[in-house]
Sequence to fold (600 residues):
Amino acid sequence: MNARILPLVLRSQARPSIRSRSQVPWICSSCRKGAPLKASFSSSNQASDKPFYITTPIFYVNAAPHVGHLYTMVLTDVLKRWQVLRGKEAILCTGTDEHGMKVQQAAAKVKIPPKEFCDLTSETFRDLATRVGIANDHFIRTTDESHRDAVQYFWYMLKAQGYIYEKKHEGWYCVSDETFYPETSLEKRLDPHTGKTFMAAQETGKEVEWTSELNYHFRLSAFKDRLLDFYKKNPEFVVPAARMRDVVNWVSAGLEDLSVSRPVERLTWGIPVPDDPSQTIYVWLDALVNYITVAGYPWAPGTDKKGGWPADVQVVGKDIVRFHCIYWPAFLMAIGLEPPKQILAHAHWTLGHQKMAKSTGNVVNPLFAMDRFGVDVMRYYLAHDGGISDDADYGNRMVVERYKKGLQGGLGNLTSRISRTKVWSVRKAIEAARDGKLMKGTKYTKAQASMVDDLAHLANLKMEQLDPGAALRVIMDAVYQTNKYLQDVSPWNFAKETRIVETTTADANGAVILSSRDLNQDRIYRCVFHCAEAIRVVAILLQPYMPTKAAEILDIMGVDTDKRTFEFAKMNADHTYGVAKIPPGKGKWEGVFPPLAVED
Fold:
């Protein structure tokens, strides 16, 4: 039997719950073209090893990307790279959401076919991911044929389980959000430009319009208790906790069945409902399935874990929590698939304390920002200042401030002071530590060593809480503390004079051996070693945030490429470095973080 044709038993189960308008069995487009077949659905929940799987939302292509999209990409990429740093196989998926009324209208506005419009705009998001160095393994487009097949198969599975039915639907529809809202989620608002009042969604502030149409519905109301039980067993399903509480409150208040199709008279640009060409599948159902499409859905028996599902983390903006934390797990439960393990719902970026939005033009062009400040600088700034719980306000002044304090004056200055001078040799300091010849540390040196030794563990705790910004601030605190330690010790002062002490020892035959050592040189090596170790460990941990700059620092410190993983991010884990692989440069303009060309 063809695995991509709905089995007869499923078709027969589905018939009572919905009226079919077609007598021709649905066959996926790949099969019609004679493409290799995928095996049928498997819902195995057996625990097995699988890659760490993380996703961005797929980005809507009705307009060009802004810095908020870049933030989501960077957060997701940092989390993925952290897993790789720790030696784990990891998969990252990003892409574009290309169906729906907004795209249909945007394409009509510029008088080009929707697919051509999507091709152009999707490429800008792909270019953005490439430009910022996202280590994505997949870039999915919802216009991909494999995704169309997966969505139609998913629809049939919902239908076969009796969760889809047809009825007339009346309600408030928001074109901007591509969803119906219950009346309890609406409020009257005043347009400040026209003075007119309009009905808007409380969550997003976008206008809604009353719509009456015949379409298909998903029995979302049947999942209230199952969802609440799932949330109770998985209290950290949504991060941060405040948004988890919102989700629980929304579901506890009751769920209405969800419209999951639109008549083609209203929406043509989308995936047709199988066996009913008069209806188009709801854009959010279509879009959400992308996460399992790239994981290989529908799976052959026993292979469902190979693509990474269930996702370990799905990163989304706080404005699409309802879709990802209520609708998505309900859809998956309906056909016996596991929901994702966690949803990270981050806060927004504002500009002038107003939400960035393509519709209002209140945006920051991410490509211009990277041209101005550099890719790694923007990655650092967004990760450092971006909000998880609370919104952050974007400003060029803040980018400059973070750069000058943390990167140029902090990490860059520390690296230059240790690596450039001829007063000491980093390599000799490392060798002294390796051979056990360092002087016993003072309480300040012991505190420095303890701080560096604990750094990876403390940063990892923040990462496990899905807070890359907090982890970055922990790492940067180590830079500031090390700069203070270096300044307090001031090893360059010890180079101004020698302090020779002589000691006597006896050899195996009892002969007296006279030796001498320069205590000031020992003090220099002790300080330089502890500072070099801090730079090495910090640079290893910064690789997920600033891949290029972190690699440059590790090259300056002479760290071998096979010793840049998480296991080496501790004191005395590597005694082979200390000879620069690239010149550390001279003067401020040749530093790792030179002065910015433009600061205002």
About this structure: The chain has 20 helices and 21 strands. Confidence is low (pLDDT under 50) at residues 1-24, 33-47. The first helix runs from residue 8 to 14. The CA atoms of residues 167 and 214 lie 6 Å apart.
